[in-house]
Structure formats: structure tokens, C-alpha cells
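stage 2 :: seqdesign
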């Protein structure tokens, strides 16, 4: 896909993976709408990114945010996410609902809103940050895993549905990346798993691979290292590994 002169929308773009992808797309010549929760001093983005409000907390908030865009995106990167970790019975139900809304319901709604315009214009790319847990669900993150496995199913189904059209889909099977969210993951799982030796990928390095995959019109970007091994493990073997690395 040609990136020079395109318009991209990246959700969750004021930090971490989202910011790195937004900056890499801008460096490749795209005009980037950097989706942030609120247009305030806590959610600023560097030039040349254009900060836009992308509140994913409800269907109404998603629609209102999309209505405020000044141009139709050619590239949609559904990156924003929430994490919930620890034992399921100890987690707050309202927060679990928020995880499902932000990680699964919102990307589906945004895609549904923007897809018709992409089809009409004859070009488009939908990029979904599924995460390694969407293919290797590990304990201690049950609802987060549910949201990401759901997004993986949505992504695969949509890719097949769009075969033969000018719109394509890219699934990001994102590894552990050195971000604030990864810090949260390690903190919330520290009482159940040994997390201090986890490998972390630099956000800029991962973003470079993401942008290349978009430009090359790939349909899946796989991780490397241990995450790739976990992704390919048979279910029984993954369960044995998880049993040895997790304590209630």
C-alpha cells in the first residue's frame, strides 16, 4: 500500500506502541490522526501528528469521536487497549467491562464505520493489534485474553470477507513491548508469575516492522523469540508451560 500522501488513524497514539506506529507512519509520508482519549495536556502528541479525540468508552463516544474527524482515513490502526490482570474473582466487574469495550467492541464499531468509505474510494488498510495473547492465552489475564482472541477471530473473518476487494487487513501479533502497559502487566502478574526476566521489544523497532508490513500489504505480522514459540505451541503443551509458570 502506498503510504505517501495517505491518511491514517491510530487509536491510543499518545504513548507506547500507538505513538511509535503513528510516528513511523508520519515518517513514511502519511498524515496521521493520533487518537487520544482527551484533547488535554495529559494526551499531547508531537508534530507532525494531529491529535484527535478518540473516546472508546461507549458506542456513543466512538461515534461522536469519528464524527469529529476532518478527513476519512485510508489506514485504520486499532491499537488502543486496556489490561486487566490477576485472578478473575478478584477483579472489578466494571473494569472488565471496560476492557471488553475498548479492546473488542470499539475496534469493531470503528471498522464498521470506516469500512464503507474505504470500499467506495477503492483503497484501505485495517490494522488490528491482536497481541500474542490472542493466540496463546495465558492465565492471569482471562478477560484481556478474551478480548484479544475475540479480536483475532474478527480480524481473520474480516480478512476473508474482504478478499477480492481493495481493502485488506493486517493482524499484529504483538510481542512484549517496552511500554507503560507492559509495566502494568508485569506488576499485576508479579504475584503469580516470574515476570522480571521477560524480554521487551523496543516500540520504535516494532513500529518499523508494522509500517513495513502495511506498505508490503502483509496480512499478519508475527513476533519473534519466545512469543513466536508460544504462538505455535499445541494447546496441551501451552497448558503445561502455563501450569509451570503460574501460581494462584
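stage 2 :: out
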Amino acid at each position: 500500500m502506498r503510504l505517501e500522501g495517505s491518511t491514517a488513524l491510530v487509536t491510543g497514539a499518545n504513548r507506547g506502541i500507538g505513538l511509535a506506529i503513528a510516528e513511523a507512519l508520519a515518517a513514511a509520508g502519511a498524515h496521521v490522526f493520533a487518537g487520544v482519549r482527551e484533547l488535554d495536556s495529559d494526551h499531547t502528541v508531537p508534530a507532525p501528528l494531529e491529535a484527535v479525540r478518540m473516546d472508546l468508552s461507549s458506542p456513543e463516544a466512538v461515534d461522536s469521536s469519528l464524527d469529529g474527524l476532518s478527513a476519512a482515513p485510508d489506514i485504520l490502526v486499532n491499537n488502543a487497549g486496556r489490561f486487566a490482570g490477576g485472578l478473575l474473582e478478584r477483579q472489578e466487574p466494571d473494569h472488565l467491562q471496560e476492557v471488553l469495550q475498548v479492546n473488542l467492541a470499539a475496534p469493531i464499531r470503528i471498522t464498521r464505520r470506516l469500512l464503507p468509505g474505504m470500499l467506495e474510494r477503492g483503497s484501505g488498510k485495517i490494522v488490528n493489534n491482536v497481541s500474542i495473547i490472542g493466540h496463546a492465552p495465558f492465565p492471569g489475564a482471562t478477560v484481556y485474553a478474551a478480548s484479544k482472541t475475540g479480536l483475532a477471530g474478527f480480524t481473520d473473518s474480516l480478512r476473508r470477507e474482504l478478499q477480492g476487494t481493495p481493502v485488506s487487513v493486517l493482524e499484529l501479533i504483538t510481542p512484549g513491548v517496552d511500554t507503560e502497559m507492559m509495566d502494568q502487566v508485569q506488576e499485576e502478574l508479579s504475584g503469580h508469575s516470574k515476570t522480571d526476566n521477560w524480554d521487551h521489544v523496543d516500540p520504535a523497532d516494532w513500529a518499523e516492522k508494522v509500517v513495513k508490513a502495511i506498505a508490503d500489504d502483509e496480512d499478519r505480522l508475527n513476533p519473534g523469540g519466545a512469543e513466536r514459540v508460544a504462538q505455535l505451541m499445541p494447546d496441551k503443551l501451552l497448558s503445561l508451560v502455563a501450569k509451570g509458570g503460574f501460581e494462584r
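stage 3 :: structure notes
- Strands lie at 7-10, 31-36, 50-53, 75-78, 124-129, 167-172, 220-221.
- The first strand starts at residue 7 and ends at 10.
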